[in-house]
Design goal:
Length: 354
C-alpha cells in the first residue's frame, strides 16, 4: 500500500518539496520513502481518482489551481498530466463526485466552489461550474466574508455539501452530471446553519449514510447532523467539545474521520495537538467522548485511517513529522508505535492500495 502526503512548499506556510510518496507496511505500520514529486506548489490536499490510477492535488496559491497526475499502482509513482485554474484563491480541498467524473474544489480565500470535468486519460478540463458563496458571521477576524473549506458528494450521490467557515453554513447543492453544473438544492433547504462562530471546516459521513459529522474549526466542536436523503436536508442533533475538560489554551480543529465500522469518530486539535476520540451510538449517530491522544508533534492539520481501520497516520505540520498509531477497534484507542517519519510541513495524508 502507498501513502501520499500533501504539503506546503511556499514560505511562510512551509518549506517542503512537493508530494511525498511512501510505501506503507500494513503489518508493522512503517513508512518507507519512495520518491518526492517536485514542481507542485502547495499541494495541500489530495484526492484519488475513481480508477485509482490518477491523483489530483490542489495548488493552494493566490491564483489557485488543481493538478492532475497519472499514478502507477505498482510503484506508486506519479506523472504530471495537466493543471487547471480552480477559480478562487487558496484552494484547500479537492475531492471527486460519486460518479467519478468530476473534481470538486473548495477555494478558501476566494469563497468559491468549483467543479472540473475529468477528461479521457485523467486530465482535467476547465471548470464547468463556479459558484461564489455569500454571507458572514460573528467572528470579526475570520468570518467577515465567505471561506469555503470542503466540498463533497453525499454517499447516495444525490447532493453535494460544501462547508463555509466564514458564513457558518453547510451549503447543499445538486450536480447535473450532464452539464457539470452545480445548482442550489431544489428539493429542500439550500443550506444548514451552523452555530454562530462555529466555523464549519470538514465533514465525514457515517457508513450508513444517515449521519454527518462536521468538525468546527473556530469553536473546537463537533456537530452531529441527521441527513435526509429525500430532501438533502441536514438537521442538527448534537454539538460537543473537541477538547478535554479544563483545557484553556488556544485551539482550532482541522479534520474529521469516521472509522470503517462507524463505531468511532476522530478529530484533530491544533493547539491541544491531539486526536479527539468519540464513540458513536448505533441508532442515533450521536457521540460520547472517549478520550484524546497526543499526536507527538505540533499542529496536526491532517490525518487518515488506513482502509482496514487498524492504523492512523497523523501529519504534524509545524513539527515536520508523520506519526504512526495503532488503533484498537474495540475501544477506539490509539497507541503510538514509536515510528516517526520526517517530512517538511505535512498537511494531508492519503492511503492508496496497490
Amino acid at each position: 500500500m502507498f501513502v501520499y502526503v500533501g504539503t506546503y512548499t511556499e514560505p511562510p506556510s512551509g518549506r517542503a518539496e512537493g508530494i511525498y510518496v511512501l510505501r506503507f507496511d500494513t503489518g508493522s505500520g512503517s513508512l518507507t520513502p519512495v520518491r518526492t514529486v517536485t514542481g507542485v506548489p502547495n499541494p495541500s490536499f489530495l484526492a484519488l481518482g475513481a480508477d485509482r490510477q490518477h491523483l489530483y492535488a490542489v495548488n493552494e496559491l493566490t491564483e489557485g489551481g488543481v493538478s492532475a497526475f497519472a499514478r502507477d499502482p505498482r510503484t506508486g509513482e506519479l506523472r504530471a498530466l495537466n493543471r487547471q485554474l480552480s477559480h478562487g484563491a487558496d484552494p484547500c480541498y479537492v475531492g471527486l463526485d460519486t460518479s467519478g467524473r468530476f473534481v470538486l474544489v473548495a477555494n478558501y480565500s476566494g469563497g468559491t466552489v468549483s467543479a472540473l470535468p475529468i477528461a479521457a486519460g485523467g486530465t482535467l478540463d476547465p471548470a464547468s461550474s463556479v459558484i461564489r458563496h455569500e454571507g458572514s458571521s460573528v467572528d470579526p477576524t475570520r468570518q467577515t466574508r465567505p471561506h469555503a473549506h470542503m466540498i463533497g458528494s453525499t454517499p447516495d450521490g444525490r447532493y453535494v455539501l460544501a462547508t463555509d467557515l466564514g458564513a457558518d453554513r453547510i451549503v447543499v447543492y445538486q450536480l447535473d452530471t450532464a452539464t457539470g453544473r452545480l445548482v442550489p438544492n431544489a428539493s429542500g433547504p439550500p443550506f444548514a446553519a451552523a452555530e454562530p462562530g462555529a466555523g464549519p471546516r470538514h465533514f465525514a459521513f457515517a457508513p450508513n449514510g444517515r449521519t454527518v459529522y462536521v468538525i468546527n474549526e473556530l469553536a473546537s466542536t463537533l456537530t452531529v447532523y441527521a441527513y435526509d436523503g429525500e430532501r438533502g436536508e441536514l438537521r442538527s442533533r448534537q454539538t460537543v467539545s473537541s477538547l478535554p475538560v479544563g483545557f484553556a489554551g488556544e485551539n482550532s480543529c482541522a479534520h474529521v474521520v469516521v472509522s470503517p465500522d462507524g463505531r468511532f469518530v476522530y478529530g484533530s486539535n491544533r493547539g491541544h495537538d491531539s486526536i479527539a476520540i468519540w464513540a458513536t451510538d448505533e441508532t442515533s449517530g450521536e457521540v460520547t467522548p472517549a478520550g484524546h491522544e497526543s499526536t507527538r508533534g505540533k499542529t496536526p492539520r491532517g490525518f487518515a485511517l488506513d482502509p482496514t481501520g487498524a492504523w492512523l497516520l497523523a501529519a504534524n505540520q509545524d513539527s515536520d513529522t508523520i506519526v504512526t498509531f495503532r488503533r484498537d477497534p474495540g475501544s477506539g484507542n490509539l497507541t503510538a508505535t514509536g515510528q516517526v517519519t520526517e517530512i517538511p510541513s505535512p498537511v494531508a495524508v492519503l492511503f492508496a492500495q496497490d
